[in-house]
Amino acid sequence: EYWIEYFWRKKLIDEIALIIVPSFDGKSGQPSIFESPGDKYDLPAQGQTLKFIDYQNLEYGYLFTRYKVHK
Questions:
Q1: 15-20 and 49-57: which strand pairing?
Q2: Which pTM value belongs to this model?
């Protein structure tokens, strides 16, 4: 369920691609795309940063973005 946390901790992620959809979630307490089951002091991606690579405008106002993960 939390596979992304495992990959962050092992520094196995080289690039992140996100599609941004122009809408509101509005649901408090719902999982996010980078959810971690640890406590609030647990930082699975600590020491890693994102650098913007590029973007592409898609239909319906969607935006496709890419980021390089620096370890």
A1: unpaired
A2: 0.70
Cα–Cα distance, 10 to 62 (Å, whole number)? 31
d(CA 8, CA 3): 9
Query: What stretch of H or E contains 62?
Result: none
Tens-digit pLDDT profile for residues 14-55: 999 999 988 876 666 666 666 667 777 777 778 889 999 999
Under a CB-based contact definition with an 8 Å cutoff, are residues 41 and 2 in contact?
no
Q: In whole angstroms, how far apart are CA 37 and each of 11, 12, 19?
A: 18, 19, 24
In the chain, count of helices (H) and strands (E)? 1, 3
